[in-house]
């Protein structure tokens, strides 16, 4: 039914007045003034036209401006739900362990960016080595695999597991052997996993071998004392240290830890008590340890054995044969002096040898027993578990594989195709193995020949543990989820052995809860926080030596005879050694390490043949001449010559760890592989051989960060002998003869309120290891520039370590430091070395500040020299006018230029950057900022906690990494701060203080424990 | 300025017979009003190639960064600032000739001031390109100017010698340009009056409506004098300030109070050498032997001996002071200069700047065009090495021996420098084609009083001392533009 209802909108409609009817025709009730506007008058008014033009002009301009720039699109994905513990800008710290060193990992918004020391870690709480500092970069290495490989094709874990298990079952059915090859495994849980695996597959054996081996010491201890262990060495308890080619401050066993021990007897605190250890070093090549020795005597490799026999005879009065040193009279005299002093310091001295020969180490044991080292400076009862490799077992493995007895082989943290002495023999033998599995993060030399690559995460993504010393356990905990589809090797082994617990995290935890935690009375959470568990150490016992040494002496004499074939010209004794930056080559793709200058030669990105200046003359080679080095087996490599003062005549040295071919962009084909020169005889690896040199006629300039080696008698280096220091603590510091300082602004002094940030550097503590350089690089996003740029002297390091040689004249006994005079010296063997960390001195009268035309570098009220990168136009005037030459210019856009593709030219690796430090663009000057971001963070923390800053609240990155505690940072305005006290020391001087730039970094004199007797040795 | 007869003992400033005002105008405007000859084209093409090289090298630097140069952490300046100081130095002769010699009423300047001033301007342009191109971020070069800005309260650092430099160079450039252009006005008007078509229009605009009436000439003279007064202190100040880039630093070998006078003398030395290099060729190619005479050449050579000797004394003084100071860094810096790895650069500088100019004591040599031309080039090679020695050998081994390094130039370093010479010559050759290379109006002033023909008339008048006449005639021996046989008749 249609509704008849009509709704009216208003009274007007109801009434339907004529006016309403009329209006209702129109859309709008009231007329719009359109007609008025469009009328002649409206159009002709001035205003609308001008308004229109204005609007048009503005619109056009605005649109044009807006269209000028394409706004870059940055995709960012916010946390949907922010994890409770992650606050942007506030770092989190987690304890973990790198190669047996307990460390603290700094993470920012979920990504690890810096390795710091773990203050709870006892022996590791003073510092870390350069490898640990650089290791964070390995996490972000683009050369890593993203998924496991099966027959060189990417696969899934289930397919890989299926394949490996199938092959393992076949192997087991055939009854053939299964071998797990690893470098020394110091993780108790990993060892338990391997043991579990061996239960499931009973033919399994775990073969441990180290590219740089300590089997000699372990075997010698087994022979001498029935304990097949590496002992714990206590350098801190030794007043007299005699080292025969052991680079114990650098690469020998536990460098960062020995550095801390060694320096505790030589640093400022010790000197104030009037005490300083004495250190003799007999060695072939110039090692970091050799550069720190009070007295260093170059000996040939073939003289090492006879020298030890001579020493033994001199100490014990025995008459072992073979102790003739030929014409090395200096060594002879030195050994007599050393023997005398060792006998005077019984129980307070230590003799170590870097040799891997069982006989040599047995003789060293005999010497140490004779001087009462066991129980004091050597502790056999709390052994060092970092190295447990057995060279003979590895050699046997090759035989087993050759005989076709091995059905499956697993490589865990080992790369024998690269670092075995005879890579060809190993490769050939490996081909006879049915199942080859590599646990590696990349296709390295060995993985390339394997059927399966079960990719492993970085330690920063892993669970695990370490047992560095007997009774000293530390935890490895992940700081980030695995970035790629990787799986820990332990977990793979658990899965393949069908273990009851297949989650390695649970496995580690169970293992700890069953063994370590009850013994220490701690909980799992305690360990995750503190990182370490230390059980009560066993008392270190004294040991007696009962073996007859005749056979040992004969063996030593034979080995040295075999080496003594040099003719002093083109046939030389070759020493292959681990270099401090590259070590055994496992981290060769780490650009920070490649660019870390060798502490002695200052060479980056290469290895080289080191020969002494006089040897170079005798052999007719100049620096950088490329020579062919060929040994008796026919192995040959071509390397450039480096002239190394202090290298023994008749010898040459080549570093291991270079010449990787399958490691990644940065590390491939850097230098040459020297592992083929290592030989296996008498049951251990030998790092000495005889080689013949021949010129190639080519030259290859090495990339060195320092090329001038002498300090030209300038008082930038100030040193004194211990004797003089004891008489007068200011000896050599120049503090008795200060010049009067004149100042133009005497009436207008700034009052320095608040903080005044300064530094003190103890030259007697710094060993020159270079760990601080890497720490600084990582902390401050310092670009790596590559070999060619270093060659052009453009490395960007904010902190460098200057290394100067001086030579003692055998006739006058004077220290010769000037290049011109050195050129006339006939004997360059007696070289002294000093390491001087050099960084921005934050001068109060900074010459860089006055010359900058745009005020890009200015002084802060708290004593810092600031650098405003954004203001810098790049005139480089400041760098020219810097007397310390510590300013670094960004010659190119190193982090975003395909020509410098060392590491940072991809988004993944850029995640390593510290977000608190801005990256610098091309054309901008930069330099040490005194870790200003750390100062700010420290100040803010104190402010939030409503307290004053305490001394030690803020630590520089370099200071933190320094195992020797050679760098102390702090507030000069606080008279009780450590740095103030050190700067008030009579040893403190300022480099170039005479030009009155008023540097903020004080250096403390180098003290050498030398006297007329040590001088006599070289006369 | 004339009307009086000049002493017969003075050598003529214009030679030749039957020279009229019209003749002068015709002679000087010959290259401007005619198609260029072959020699010009050859020179121009070579110069243009150089200028192109400069564009390529500088663009390469801008694109890739200063790293394309051979600089390093120790040697932050090398060919760039060497080139900068070298060009600024060369620029000095122009102002000295136009301003100082004007104030001293040395009329012989009238023949050479125009080219010398043009050379100054082009040299300063070359120097200014270095100021910008040596910067790490050249697109921010304007930050060294004290401009009001919105970067906060950022201002330039008035303590920095580079800021002083910026003021000195820009003042110098603007005053020189003004002085040069003011001097050009009557000559441009001359061209305008003789030109037709498009050229006439262009020169009409350029001549600023020069009418040539007495009032204009009077004001012209007044302005010239005022500008000369303003320019004179600049001759001393510019290179003094440039020298302060080094003198106010702390680097041994730079930190030297002798630098300001030594740099100014060196600048005049190199500037006159460059004027000679250019004009000896120009007078031959453009046929201007009558206006740029042996007298001019010899006078400039005398200035070169003087300033070269001042520079030589400065070099020796530096050594003495280094020894006398007892500062080991200073002593080493100087021993290193003469015997270190860059000894060759030092001895190159010594030979070219101190030893070889002494040859000019011999009249035969200083009046020989070939010898003079070669020596003028040698001097500028020496002056380039002087700056190289000061900059590179001081920096490469300063305080801490650990940072000692060598500097090796790259192809870009060399190309920017060689290219800047190309830019300079391109500009100079274009200048020769469009503007009179000799100040026409000013040379005309000399015709009545100081020309050979006016003196000839005086001699013919016969009221002169015979001995003086004989001496005058003898002095004309060296002039290559004077025919001696005509005097034999008298």
Q: Can you summarize this structure?
A:
The complex is a heterodimer of chains A (1019) and B (490). Chain A has 1019 residues and is α/β, with parallel strands linked by helices.
Topology diagram in text:
The complex is a heterodimer of chains A (1019) and B (490).
Chain A: H1 11-15, H2 18-24, H3 34-38, H4 40-44, H5 46-68, E1 92-98, E2 101-108, E3 111-117, H6 130-139, E4 149-150, E5 153-154, H7 157-174, E6 177-182, H8 188-200, E7 204-208, H9 215-225, E8 230-233, E9 240-244, H10 255-263, H11 268-272, E10 278-283, H12 288-292, E11 295-298, H13 301-316, H14 329-344, E12 349-353, H15 358-370, E13 378-384, H16 391-402, E14 406-412, H17 416-419, H18 423-430, E15 435-439, E16 452-453, E17 464-469, E18 472-476, H19 489-496, H20 504-514, H21 516-520, H22 524-530, E19 532-534, H23 550-563, E20 571-577, H24 591-594, E21 603-604, E22 609-611, H25 613-619, E23 625-631, E24 636-643, E25 651-655, E26 679-681, E27 684-686, E28 688-699, E29 703-704, E30 719-721, H26 722-727, E31 757-762, H27 771-779, H28 787-791, E32 800-808, E33 815-816, H29 819-823, E34 831-838, H30 847-851, E35 857-859, E36 865-867, H31 877-880, E37 888-889, E38 925-926, H32 932-944, H33 957-961, E39 967-971, H34 978-983, E40 988-989, E41 1001-1004, E42 1006-1008, H35 1012-1018
Parallel strand pairs in A: 6-7, 6-14, 9-10, 9-12, 10-11, 14-15, 15-16, 20-25, 22-24, 30-42, 31-41
Antiparallel strand pairs in A: 1-2, 2-3, 4-5, 4-16, 8-13, 17-18, 18-19, 20-28, 21-29, 23-24, 23-28, 26-27, 31-39, 32-33, 32-34, 35-36, 37-38, 40-41
Chain B: H1 21-33, H2 38-64, H3 79-90, H4 92-103, H5 109-133, H6 161-194, H7 197-206, H8 214-247, H9 259-285, H10 294-325, H11 328-339, H12 343-355, H13 363-366, H14 369-396, H15 411-434, H16 440-450, H17 452-461, H18 466-475, H19 485-489
């Amino acid at each position: 039914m249609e509704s008849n209802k009509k709704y009216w909108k208003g009274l007007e409609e109801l009434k339907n007045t004529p006016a309403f009817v009329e209006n209702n025709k129109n859309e709008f009730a009231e007329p719009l003034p359109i007609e008025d506007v469009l009328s002649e008058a409206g159009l002709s008014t001035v205003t609308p036209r001008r308004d229109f033009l204005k609007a048009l002009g503005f619109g056009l301009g605005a649109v044009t401006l807006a269209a000028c720039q394409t706004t870059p699109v940055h995709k960012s994905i916010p946390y949907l739900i922010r994890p409770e513990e992650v606050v942007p800008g506030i770092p989190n710290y987690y304890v973990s362990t790198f190669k047996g060193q307990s460390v603290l990992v700094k993470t920012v918004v979920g990504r690890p960016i810096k390795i710091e020391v773990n203050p709870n870690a006892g022996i590791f709480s003073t510092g870390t080595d350069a490898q640990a500092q650089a290791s964070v970069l390995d996490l972000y290495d683009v050369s890593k695999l993203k998924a496991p490989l099966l027959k060189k094709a990417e696969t899934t874990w289930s397919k890989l597991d299926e394949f490996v298990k199938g092959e393992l079952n076949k192997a087991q059915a055939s009854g053939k052997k299964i071998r797990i090859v690893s470098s020394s495994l110091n993780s108790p849980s990993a060892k338990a996993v391997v043991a579990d695996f061996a239960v499931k597959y009973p033919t399994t054996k775990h073969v441990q071998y180290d590219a740089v081996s300590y089997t000699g010491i372990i075997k010698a201890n087994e022979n001498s004392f029935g304990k097949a262990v590496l002992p714990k060495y206590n350098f801190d308890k030794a007043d007299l240290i005699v080292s025969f080619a052991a680079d114990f401050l650098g690469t020998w066993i536990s460098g960062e830890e020995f550095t801390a021990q060694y320096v505790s007897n030589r640093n400022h605190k010790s000197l104030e008590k009037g005490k300083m250890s004495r250190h003799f070093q007999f060695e072939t090549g110039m090692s970091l340890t050799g550069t720190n020795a009070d007295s260093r005597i170059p000996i040939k490799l073939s003289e090492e054995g006879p020298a030890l026999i001579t020493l033994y005879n001199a100490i014990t009065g025995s008459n072992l044969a073979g102790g003739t040193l030929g014409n090395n009279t200096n060594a002879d005299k030195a050994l007599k002096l050393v023997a005398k002093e060792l006998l005077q310091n019984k129980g307070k001295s230590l003799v170590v040898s870097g040799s891997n020969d069982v006989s040599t180490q047995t003789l060293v044991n005999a010497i140490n027993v004779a001087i009462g080292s066991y129980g004091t400076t050597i502790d056999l009862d709390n052994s060092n578990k970092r190295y447990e490799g057995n060279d003979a077992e590895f050699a046997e493995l090759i035989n087993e594989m050759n005989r076709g007895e091995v059905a499956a082989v697993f490589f865990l943290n080992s790369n024998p195709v690269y670092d075995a002495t005879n890579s060809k023999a190993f490769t050939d033998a490996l081909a006879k193995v049915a199942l080859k599995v590599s646990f590696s993060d990349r296709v390295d030399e060995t993985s390339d020949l394997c059927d399966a690559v079960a990719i492993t995460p970085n330690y920063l993504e892993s669970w695990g543990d370490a047992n560095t010393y007997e009774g000293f356990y530390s935890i490895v905990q992940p700081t980030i989820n695995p970035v790629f589809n990787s799986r820990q090797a332990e977990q793979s082994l658990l899965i393949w052995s069908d273990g009851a617990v297949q989650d390695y995290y649970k496995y580690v935890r169970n293992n700890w809860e069953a063994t370590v935690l009850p013994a220490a009375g701690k909980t799992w959470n305690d360990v995750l926080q503190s990182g370490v568990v230390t059980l009560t150490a066993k008392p270190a016992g004294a040991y007696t030596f009962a073996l007859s040494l005749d056979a040992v002496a004969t063996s030593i004499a034979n080995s040295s005879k075999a080496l003594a074939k040099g003719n002093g010209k083109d046939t030389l004794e070759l020493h292959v050694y681990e270099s401090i930056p590259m070590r055994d080559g496992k981290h060769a793709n780490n650009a920070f390490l490649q660019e870390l200058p060798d502490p002695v030669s200052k060479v980056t990105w290469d290895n080289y043949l080191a020969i002494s200046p006089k040897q170079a003359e005798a052999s007719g080679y100049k620096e950088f001449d490329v020579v062919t080095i060929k040994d008796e087996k026919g192995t040959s490599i071509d390397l450039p010559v480096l002239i190394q003062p202090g290298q023994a005549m008749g010898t040459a040295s080549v570093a291991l760890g270079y010449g990787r071919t399958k490691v990644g962009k940065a590390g491939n084909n850097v230098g040459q592989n020297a592992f083929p020169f290592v030989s296996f005889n008498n049951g251990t690896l030998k790092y000495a051989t005889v080689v013949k040199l021949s010129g190639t006629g080519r030259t290859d300039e090495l990339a060195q960060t320092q090329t001038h080696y002498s300090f030209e008698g300038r008082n930038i280096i100030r040193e004194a002998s211990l004797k003089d220091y004891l008489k007068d603590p200011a000896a050599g510091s120049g503090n008795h003869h200060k010049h009067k300082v004149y100042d133009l602004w005497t009436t207008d002094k700034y009052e320095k309120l608040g903080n005044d940030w300064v530094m003190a550097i103890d030259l007697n503590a710094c060993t020159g290891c270079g760990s601080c350089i890497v720490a600084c690089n990582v902390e401050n996003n310092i670009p790596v520039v590559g070999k060619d740029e270093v060659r052009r002297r453009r490395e960007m390091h904010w902190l460098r370590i200057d290394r100067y040689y001086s030579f003692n004249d055998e006739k006058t006994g004077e220290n010769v430091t000037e290049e011109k005079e050195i050129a006339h010296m006939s004997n360059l063997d007696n070289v002294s070395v000093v390491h001087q960390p050099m960084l921005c001195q934050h001068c109060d009268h900074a010459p860089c500040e006055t010359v900058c035309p745009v005020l890009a570098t200015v002084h802060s009220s708290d004593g810092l020299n600031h650098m405003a990168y954004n203001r810098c136009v790049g005139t480089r005037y400041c760098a020219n006018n810097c007397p310390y030459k510590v300013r670094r210019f960004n010659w190119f856009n190193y982090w975003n230029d395909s020509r410098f593709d060392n590491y940072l030219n991809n988004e993944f690796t850029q995640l390593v950057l510290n977000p608190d430090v801005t990256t610098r663009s091309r054309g901008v000057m930069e330099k040490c900022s005194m870790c200003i971001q750390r100062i700010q963070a420290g100040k803010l923390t104190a402010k939030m906690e409503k307290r004053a800053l305490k001394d030690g609240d803020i630590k520089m990155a370099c200071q933190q990494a320094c195992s020797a505690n050679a760098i102390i940072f702090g507030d000069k305005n606080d008279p009780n701060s450590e740095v103030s006290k050190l700067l008030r020391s009579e040893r403190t001087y300022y480099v170039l203080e005479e030009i009155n730039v008023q540097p903020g970094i004080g250096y403390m004199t180098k003290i050498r424990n030398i006297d007329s007797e040590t001088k006599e040795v070289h006369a | 300025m004339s009307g009086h007869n000049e002493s017969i003992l003075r050598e003529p400033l214009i030679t030749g017979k039957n020279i009229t005002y019209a003749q002068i105008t015709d002679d000087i405007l010959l290259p401007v009003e005619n198609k260029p000859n072959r020699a010009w084209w050859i020179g121009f093409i070579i110069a243009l190639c150089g200028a192109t090289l400069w564009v390529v090298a500088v663009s390469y630097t801008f694109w890739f960064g200063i790293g394309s140069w051979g600089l390093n952490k120790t040697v932050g300046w090398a060919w760039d600032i060497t080139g900068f100081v070298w060009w600024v130095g060369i620029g000095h002769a122009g102002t000295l000739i136009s301003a100082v010699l004007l104030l001293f009423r040395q009329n012989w300047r009238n023949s050479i001031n125009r080219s010398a001033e043009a050379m100054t301007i082009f040299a300063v342009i070359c120097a200014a390109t270095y100021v910008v191109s040596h910067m790490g971020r050249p697109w921010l070069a304007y930050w060294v100017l004290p401009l009001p800005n919105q970067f906060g309260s950022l201002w330039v650092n008035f303590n920095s010698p580079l800021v002083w430099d910026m003021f000195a160079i820009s003042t110098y450039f603007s005053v020189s340009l003004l002085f040069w252009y003011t001097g050009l006005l009557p000559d441009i008007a001359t061209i305008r009056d003789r030109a037709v078509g498009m050229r006439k229009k262009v020169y009409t605009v350029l001549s600023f409506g020069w009418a040539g009436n007495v009032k204009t000439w009077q004001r012209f003279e007044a302005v010239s004098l005022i500008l000369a007064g303003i320019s004179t202190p600049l001759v001393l100040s510019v290179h003094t300030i440039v020298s302060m880039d080094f003198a106010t630093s702390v680097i041994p070998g730079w930190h030297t109070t002798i630098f300001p006078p030594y740099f100014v003398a060196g600048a005049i030395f190199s500037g006159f050498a460059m004027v000679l290099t250019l004009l000896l060729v120009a007078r031959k190619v453009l046929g201007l032997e009558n206006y740029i005479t042996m007298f001019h050449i010899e006078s400039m050579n005398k200035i070169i001996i003087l300033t070269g000797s001042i520079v030589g004394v400065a070099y020796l003084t530096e050594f003495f002071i280094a020894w006398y100071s007892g500062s080991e860094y200073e002593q080493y810096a100087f021993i290193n200069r003469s015997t270190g790895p860059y000894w060759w650069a030092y001895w190159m500088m010594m030979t070219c700047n101190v030893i070889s100019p002494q040859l000019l004591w011999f009249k035969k040599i200083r009046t020989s065009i070939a010898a003079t031309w070669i020596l003028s080039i040698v001097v500028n090679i020496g002056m380039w090495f002087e700056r190289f020695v000061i900059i590179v050998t001081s920096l490469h081994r300063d305080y801490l021996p650990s940072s000692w390094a060598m500097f090796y130039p790259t192809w870009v370093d060399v190309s920017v420098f060689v290219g800047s010479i190309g830019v300079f010559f391109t500009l100079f050759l274009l200048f020769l084609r469009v503007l009179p290379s000799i100040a026409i109006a000013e040379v005309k002033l000399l015709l009545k009083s100081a020309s050979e023909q006016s003196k000839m008339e005086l001699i013919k008048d016969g009221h002169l001392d015979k001995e003086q006449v004989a001496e005058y005639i003898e002095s004309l021996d060296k002039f290559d533009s004077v025919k001696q046989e005509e005097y034999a008749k008298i």
